[in-house]
């Protein structure tokens, strides 16, 4: 964590800005802080692990994507009156418990974010601090901003305003269908990416009231969150929203990469084939109308999604306008700093204990294809004992 914080501080731009006055009834106390957002006033709480940290959890950054908002671009959250309690995590987005379970948890009403800051940053004229927005991983199908290891208190205690976000997952976040395309020709899935962009815009517009500098925003994540962060560096919809990306356990987007092929977005047709195949697996007519499609219950939609696990971002011509190689060759990417790397033992680089030498070699061949021999040179094993 300390090395990540040091690297983060290194790539953020230096600069100073003054916090605008926030029209709240009072600053509140360090145990019950109050801050403004564009939708209303929120009340947070004191950190659990670090006494010099304040948190605001479960802040809605967009309207609930339910009913006729399902499979549409996010829209602003409705304003509220009075002071909204922001001391508990918001609902996680709809998903199954894990890849071996059919149990559905979470809610479609899940577009929340969390902010970790310090008492001296609320309602003051202090120098604004750099901001880090965390996009969680989970194969675009699992996870949430509420995972304990990413609660942001440690980073906030070091002087960085930490924000974590939820975004639509799985078939609610990356599903596409001819009826949806007819309704809005520019949209082909990627609702989860649109949520991420919308959340970053919200942060840019509101973070000064929490002590963050809107001109020093870095985004980042791990695994699917890292891929999403890099994708946003290629998206014109995210232009000028952030200054840097920290990508943990992702890689460059190269379509012929035998290891990272799954990082390459689907074409619209590939995404549609996956989506239609899924509808058939849950006994939904693939020719269903858009209104009927939005009426299908989450329980029915998720009957078989545990078998699928194939959701990817989509080369849609809108969020992701062109193949990455073309974007890079023509210099069309957003001009941001990028820091990339892999976390220890990511993707099961170290297999389970008690494997035989034959199992170890087979695992290397399956995972690394044409690079299996190179992997074995880097991580050699000569017998069952060394393979374990």
TrEMBL record:
Origin: domain of life: Eukaryota
EC assignment: 3.1.1.-
Family matches, as InterPro entries: AB_hydrolase_fold, CarbesteraseB, Carboxylesterase_B_AS, Type-B_Carboxylest/Lipase
GO molecular function: carboxylic ester hydrolase activity
Residues annotated as signal peptide: 1-19
Domain Carboxylesterase type B: 32-368
Keyword Lipoprotein appears in the UniProt entry: no
Keywords (A to Z) from UniProt: Hydrolase, Serine esterase, Signal
PANTHER family: CARBOXYLESTERASE (PTHR11559)
Protein family (similarity comment): Belongs to the type-B carboxylesterase/lipase family.
Protein name: Carboxylic ester hydrolase
């Amino acid at each position: 964590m300390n090395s990540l914080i040091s690297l983060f501080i290194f790539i953020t731009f230096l600069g100073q800005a003054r916090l605008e006055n926030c029209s709240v009834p009072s600053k509140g106390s360090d145990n019950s802080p109050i801050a403004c957002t564009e939708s209303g006033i929120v009340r947070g709480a004191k950190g659990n692990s670090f006494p010099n940290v304040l948190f605001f959890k479960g802040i809605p950054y967009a309207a609930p994507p339910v009913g006729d908002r399902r499979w549409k671009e996010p829209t602003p959250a409705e304003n509220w009156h009075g002071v909204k309690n922001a001391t508990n995590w918001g609902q996680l987005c709809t998903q199954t418990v894990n890849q071996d379970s059919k149990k559905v948890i979470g809610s479609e009403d899940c577009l929340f974010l969390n902010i970790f800051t310090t008492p001296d940053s609320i309602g003051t004229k202090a120098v604004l601090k750099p901001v880090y927005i965390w996009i969680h991983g989970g194969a675009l199908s699992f996870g949430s901003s509420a995972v304990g290891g990413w609660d942001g208190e440690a980073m906030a205690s070091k002087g960085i305003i930490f924000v974590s976000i939820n975004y639509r997952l799985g078939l609610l976040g990356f599903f596409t269908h001819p009826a949806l395309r007819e309704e809005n020709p520019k949209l082909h899935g990627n609702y989860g990416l649109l949520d991420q962009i919308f959340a970053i815009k919200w942060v840019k517009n509101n973070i000064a009231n929490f002590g963050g500098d809107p001109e020093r925003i870095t985004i980042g994540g791990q695994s699917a969150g890292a891929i999403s962060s890099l994708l946003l560096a290629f998206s014109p919809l995210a232009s000028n929203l952030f200054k840097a990306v920290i990508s943990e356990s992702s890689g460059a987007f190269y379509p012929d990469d035998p290891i990272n092929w799954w990082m390459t977005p689907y074409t619209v047709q590939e995404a549609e084939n996956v989506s239609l195949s899924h509808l058939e697996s849950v006994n939904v007519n693939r020719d269903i109308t858009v209104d009927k499609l939005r009426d299908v219950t989450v329980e029915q939609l998720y009957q078989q999604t545990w078998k699928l696990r194939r959701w990817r971002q989509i080369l849609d011509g809108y969020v992701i306008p062109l193949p990455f190689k073309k974007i890079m060759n023509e210099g069309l990417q957003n001009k941001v700093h990028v820091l990339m790397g892999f976390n220890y033992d990511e993707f099961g680089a170290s297999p389970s204990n008690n494997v035989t030498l034959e199992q170890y070699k087979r695992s290397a061949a399956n995972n690394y294809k044409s690079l299996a021999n190179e992997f074995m040179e880097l991580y050699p094993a000569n017998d069952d004992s060394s393979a374990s």
